[in-house]
Amino acid sequence: MTGHTTTRQRLTAELLDALRTDGGVRVVTGEPGCGRTTFLDHAARLFRAGPVRHLRAGQAHELDDVLRTATAARPLLLCVDDAHLWDAPARAALARTAARIRETGVRAALLVTVPAHRRVARELADLPVLRLGPLTPADAAPLVRDAADGAVDPAVREELITAAEGNPALLLALVRRLSPAQLSGRRALPPLLVTGEVLAEVAGDRLPDDPGGLLLTTAAAARATGEEDADEELVLRACPSASDGPLPDLLTRGEGRLRFRSALMFRAVYATAPPGHRRAAHLALAEAATEADGILPLLHRSWAVTGPASAVAAALTRAATDPACTAPPALRRRALTRAAELTPDGTGRARLHLAAAQQALLAGRTADALRLLELARGRSAPASVRGGAELLRGALLLADGPVEDARESFLLAADLLPPPAAARATLAAADAAWSAGDPAACLSALAPTRTPPALPLAEACVRVPRSGTPTASDASAARADATASRTACTPPTNPPPDGDPSRDHRDGLRAVLLARFDLAAAPLRRVVDHGLRGSDPDHLLRSAAAALMLGDVTSARRAGARALAAARTSGSAALEPRALEYLAYAELRAGRHQLARTHAEEGLRTAARAGQRNTAAHHHAVLALAASIEGEADLVTEHAEAALRTARRHGLAQAATLAHWAAARADLGAGRPREAAQRLGPLVQPGARRGHFAVWMLAVPCFVEAAASAGRPQHAAAVVESFALWAACGADPQAPSQLLRCRALLAAPDTADELYRRALDRHDDTAGDFERARTELLYGKWLRRRRRLREARTRLEEARLGFERCGARLWAQQAAAELRAGGAAPAAAPAAPPCLARLTPQQLRIARYVAEGATNREVALSLSVSTRTVDYHLRNVFATLGLRSRVELVRLVEQEEKTGARL
User: Fold this and answer.
1) CB 3.0–4.6 Å: which of 108, 360, 596, 693 could bond 70 by disulfide?
2) Please, where are the H alpha helices in 105-228?
3) Is residue 667 within 8 Å of 673, Cβ to Cβ?
4) pLDDT number for residue 823
5) Distance of alpha carbon 734 from its chain centroid, rounded?
6) From CA 599, how far away is CA 610, in angstroms rounded?
7) Within a 10 A sphere around the Cβ of 770, how many other Cβ atoms?
8) CB neighbours of 258 closer than 8 A, spacing ≥ 6?
9) Mind listing the pLDDT tens digit for each residue in 618-643?
10) Where does this protein have compositionally biased stretches of type Low complexity (predicted)?
11) Do residues 46 and 10 lie in contact, with contact meaning Cβ atoms separated by under 8 Å?
């Protein structure tokens, strides 16, 4: 089969690189239809270091002779497909050959394929395994295109890829089943794409008999929960005749759970069973369940009936919508979907499909939510249902689509919904306008009669006239507002009375947008306190947003962490990436860049699982910002470009501004102030290209430093006065010290000294080594150029140590270079491992993962970077350390760990 190339080819290349370098053995396994034979053939085509031999059943006696052909100059690749078909003596000979390759250093590599839906033969059980996972959507798309031999409608392609669940053989079977008209989208798809007939075709003769019913009962139990395994105790209670017998080869057990070795075989066992047998299995599971199982007994009973069943549907609906229900959103979605199938009334079905879509969204199942929405938004549905569907569609687009389209969906929902729900829809439109960088639309939606949105990133902004130059009246009004704001921002001695947090958030956010900080602080403080008193993830996210606007990063971090814990506890996969986004931004604002990086890497993985590309773009922006501090230019470029790709396609002005800022800060750290000023100028100066209204002010200190260092301080004077208004509002703890630093950069020599000292004094009031070290560095440079060398050395050494504490390698090198220029060598760094100390932080991370046995692809997934980036870093690791193979890297790491080294 052709088409599924990118990920599999990279995996093959990595495997061959390891085998060719070190020699070795791999047992390649995967479920039926995963392409084991194709993988083996592709590996044979790519192996050009020496001869390739394919051995089949009955040729075990040739193993020794074949192995003798391997030489140091021409290593051998030995391929054995379907080794499970070899008899036991032949498998034993194969195992001896594998041991010889692994233990004696013979210049040969051995690839053996076995199926994953059965136990690995005892003779091969101890060999290292490479499991072929499902195709990614990106790899499945060209497979569909090649197999269809013509145009495929994108929506149809997505349906096919989702239905196949990454199995290439099943995907090909589905494509063959459809007509050209169906593939092109001119005719409707079949109601059920994956039928028992299709699954039986792919599974072939691999489906065993199931006389005791254990396989079908396990499949029915897992189908109800939507999980990959089932409760063993429940299954055995429902199928008592199987409790004493051996476990079928298709199943495995562990920690009280039964699981199919292959997802395809699990689907095939259930789909190919006679309908009566399936109903009997579900009925047995319903009777074996206990009250503690909640919705599950009702779900099983629903699959034991035929035709419409209003009473069963009503019971399922009550259970799934009960506020006291503790079932995760994924299980509620299944219950509501099944209730809709059993409901004869069209309006009732539409309402249930909408409710199921809402739970699918919470569960992070975007594709399922969209399919359910299509069932709910027909013309026959009442306006309230169609409005609810548009509201939910807007939420989906806001997380993974053009935000202007999301805004239009929200506005359409507002026209269709009754007043309370319409208010929520218009506020969601404001959320979309915020993401798009449209402050006028935000203010329109935040009118006093409406409820505020939960913003994806709540950062305060300042009001500047359209000309971009503040007037005297603006400045005096802002100073008065700021004075009142600082007073109002002080946490009250007694907790504020309970009110309406939605109204408080609306009032506080609207006041911020209007630069009325004196009116914003009190309602936003009530929002923060209200959220932190509970455990609702949405309220906690709102609390984090309000805390960021107040500049209370401690409360923002606390609310973000609690929101993350609450989302995980409730199974709300859609809320996890958002909670991690708030938490990562709060860590950045607190100057804890490495923690921000950790949370953003996790957020990127959860956003990918939940299908939230817009949220992923924000996590990429955080990772770019963190990498710009650590001086990893290639990572800054990769994450900034990833953020910008989505930002440009979906209109995410906020993520785009952060990505450009990260790239400029990387230029500044690398000693390229002219390039940094050129990047930042359009973002912070008046004009159509100015950055997002809530973010551009954060980049001003970098622009001022870049402009001054490039010899163009006059370009920064106007934005410093705008920044002064921002600093006065009290929303950013770092802003007052940054403002003094900016003024020092532009000041005459007789006043700059005092401004730098005052800036350092203000840094004492806030956390964050990085910003303080930047001020120390700039002050040290200023002192050195005035030949005040003793004072300069003190400041520059403090800067170097501060940068090293926060991992800002390139910035620390700047400080060290300034020390040398002033005639002093920097103080000796603490003793470090002689080899590993030469690696960058990212190289160290990659070296650690590789030493633990991870492939390049696994490292890339763990660090949320591309495989190409891992390849690049790993080559540099080998070059820096003078190594030739992964084996040598493992030995080096183990040796230095024994002597107390730390990666």
Assistant:
1) 108
2) 137-148, 154-164, 168-177, 180-183, 196-203, 214-225
3) yes
4) 77
5) 28
6) 16
7) 18
8) 218, 221, 229, 230, 231, 232, 235, 251, 252
9) 999 999 999 998 888 888 999 999 99
10) 471-491
11) no
**Considering only CA atoms, which of 436, 372, 441, 449 is closest in space to residue 411?**
441
Residue type, 4: H
Structural Rg of the chain based on CA atoms: 31
* Reduced DSSP (H G I as helix, E B as strand, rest coil) percent helix, strand, coil of the chain, to 5: 65, 5, 30
pLDDT tens, residue by residue, 164-187: 999 999 999 999 999 999 999 889
Q: In the beta sheet, which residues pair with residue 630?
A: none
Would you say 505 and 452 are in contact if contact means Cβ atoms under 8 Å apart? yes
Q: Which two tokens stand for residue 162?
A: 């989702």
| Diameter over CA atoms, the chain | 94
Residue where the block lists tokens 């070059």: 879
CA distance linking residue 432 with residue 441, whole number of Å = 9
CB 152 within 8 A of CB 189: no
- The token pair at 248 is 């079928």
Say which residue the tokens 């106007």 belong to: 718
CA distance 802 to 764: 13
**Bridge partners of residue 252, in order along the sequence:** 259
CB 345 within 8 A of CB 317: no
Quote the tokens at residue 539. Answer: 């309220």
286-333 per-position pLDDT tens digit: 999 987 778 999 999 999 998 888 899 999 999 999 988 888 898 999
DSSP code for 536: -
d(CA 632, CA 841): 8
DSSP assigned state of 122: G
What's the angle, vertex CA 806, arms to CA 805 and CA 810, rounded to 5? 100
In which element (H, E) is residue 190 found? none
